[in-house]
Specification:
By secondary structure, the protein is an all-beta fold. The chain is built from no helices and 13 strands.
Length: 181
């Protein structure tokens, strides 16, 4: 089982390849004792990350996962579940992730942030699941091969500094979604 957050681990198995010592023309072939094995890395199969922010509803294909930010909401009918400062607001993104690999992956929300126009970065809210607005909550589960999951990731943002971009960054891939259509 791969532990990937909501992206896929880029660790690839290494394979051993045979390389022979160079020989001059007319010289005998190298003996088995002069043949060395050199490990080589398998090529990365993930396509490059998109250049600019995607629109809501657009899917990023990261090779072993496909991710779509379906919607963005400020506030919630459940805002009073957790007391937040009067200068703060709930900001939530509805995320769908599909495991396109052949192995199970762990899905969590650790790779997600929201960014404001003023470049302030907001990390996901760290409250108990029962207190979060916009249920069901995304992440915190094992996702089998060829399966999808969808749920909300919530953030507490400053009321006067509204988020404009949702960012997925697992240190290998970074994808952004513009939060306004």
């Amino acid at each position: 089982m791969a532990l990937v957050g909501c992206g896929a681990s880029d660790d690839k198995p290494t394979s051993a390849g045979s390389t022979a010592s160079p020989s001059s023309p007319g010289s005998p072939s190298p003996s088995p004792s002069t043949t060395t094995l050199a490990p080589t890395l398998a090529p990365t199969s993930a396509p490059p990350s998109p250049a600019g922010p995607l629109r809501l509803g657009r899917t990023a294909d990261l090779g072993s996962v496909k991710i779509t930010v379906q919607a963005y909401r400020q506030g919630s009918s459940n805002d009073r579940a957790v007391d937040i400062e009067s200068s703060e607001i709930w900001a939530s993104v509805d995320v769908r992730l599909c495991n396109t690999s052949s192995a199970p992956i762990e899905v969590n929300d650790d790779y997600w942030t929201l960014q404001s126009a003023g470049s302030t970065e907001y990390e996901k809210a760290n409250f108990q699941d029962f207190a979060m607005p916009q249920q069901p909550v995304y992440g915190g589960r094992t996702l089998q091969a060829s399966k999808c999951t969808r749920g909300w990731i919530s953030f507490v943002a400053q009321r006067d500094d509204t988020p404009v971009v949702a960012v997925y960054n697992n240190e290998v891939d970074q994808v952004e979604w513009a939060l306004k259509r």
